[in-house]
Amino acid sequence: MSTLIEVKNLHLSHTRGEIITVTHVEKPYGEHSSPIVSIGTSYHGKKNNSVVEIPYENVDEVIKALIESKKVCDRFVHETFHGELDADMGGGE
What we know:
The chain is α+β, with helices and mostly antiparallel strands. It has one helix and four strands; from the N terminus they run ββββα. Strands 1-2-3-4 form a four-stranded antiparallel beta sheet.
């Protein structure tokens, strides 16, 4: 039987009340399976609507790829269309 331990819940930017959930999963596919990290996102109140499961052996490479992806994104100019959703108070940024 799988054991799930929620590690962290993060606010999903540009949404209202939606989250990213990072979970450690022990024995995800049965008694002798290796642990994984599960990253899920909620949409419209439904938790873990979208999930990716990553073996721990791949985590470091995935982190490096995410950092590289952020560097690619930073090369472009982006407007903050939904900046008000991350504001502490009403009225936008």
